[in-house]
Amino acid sequence: MITGSLVALVTPMHPNGDIHWEHLDKLVDFHIENGTHGIVAVGTTGESATLDPEEHCKTIGHIIKRVNGRIPVIAGTGGNSTREAIALTSAAHKLGADACLLVVPYYNKPTQEGLYQHFRTIAEAVPMMKQMLYNVPGRTACDMLNETVVRLADIPNIIAIKDATGNVPRGAELIQAVEGRLDVYSGDDATAMELMLAGAKGNVSVTANVAPRAMAELCTAAVAGNREEAERLNELLMPLNRKLFLEANPIPVKWALQRMGMIGDGLRLPLTVLSEPFHGEVEDALKASGVL
């Protein structure tokens, strides 16, 4: 798998909500030019919940084509329906994705056994696709426990997990429990440095959308165990790590990219543009981190 900074890429849109393909190309090139190690396409930050299946697959394919093998592409193909997740994963495999990202099913709140069966079934249905699990209980209302991940680590094509719990001790325990079988990545920008210093292989990052080079350098330093350099870069990025979550992701990061002149102001309902009282805070964070 990839080591380093994996950007959870936004999906730029026109004001009417249609996908803005030219801006998407611009973002892909921006990340490659600034050292991002891999792209996660159409995950939570990419507004997967509001893209229909055809758009979802078209966006993944568009990103893969634009990347053209220059860095790996991980396709977001999860869902709260096992059948839908299999269909999306199969489509992403045919499109040429290097791996897929499978979020814990949301809303229907399965048991731990249900989670195990869900991910095992997807892995067996698309055996040639490398799969990264994604645990983000703050968004899904369902927490996949470490014990369940340990069970899943025995399945050959389940090779990684994005741990977005923000709980570093728990993540460190998981790293030790699955060592040699499954790689752990952070999915929480504010705590990513510490988890990488504890053995995580990288960070699936929202902050990387606006500060790709600094995040790539931070990940490289932290994975190498260079705490001094990692702390220097982490301090630089911490204002963004905090302020890009003032409202639900990806509302603040899309506003930040618009402020940077990278994309327009398109979002899909029920998401709305960043509330005006937060504009100054996000802009100040962009300036403090050297982005503006």
From TrEMBL:
Subcellular location: Cytoplasm
Reactions mediated catalytically: L-aspartate 4-semialdehyde + pyruvate = (2S,4S)-4-hydroxy-2,3,4,5-tetrahydrodipicolinate + H2O + H(+)
Main location group: cytoplasm
Keywords associated with the record: Amino-acid biosynthesis, Cytoplasm, Diaminopimelate biosynthesis, Lyase, Lysine biosynthesis, Schiff base
SUPFAM superfamilies documented for this protein: Aldolase
UniProt site (L-lysine inhibitor binding): A49, N80, E84, Y106
Active site: Y134, K162
GO molecular function: 4-hydroxy-tetrahydrodipicolinate synthase activity
Positions with a binding annotation for pyruvate: T45, V204
The keyword Membrane belongs to this UniProt entry's keyword annotation: no
GO biological process annotation, one example: diaminopimelate biosynthetic process
Gene3D superfamilies reported in the protein's UniProt record: Aldolase class I
PANTHER family, A to Z: 4-HYDROXY-2-OXOGLUTARATE ALDOLASE, MITOCHONDRIAL, DIHYDRODIPICOLINATE SYNTHASE
Function: Catalyzes the condensation of (S)-aspartate-beta-semialdehyde [(S)-ASA] and pyruvate to 4-hydroxy-tetrahydrodipicolinate (HTPA).
Subunit structure of this chain's protein: Homotetramer; dimer of dimers.
Family: Belongs to the DapA family.
Listed name of the protein: 4-hydroxy-tetrahydrodipicolinate synthase
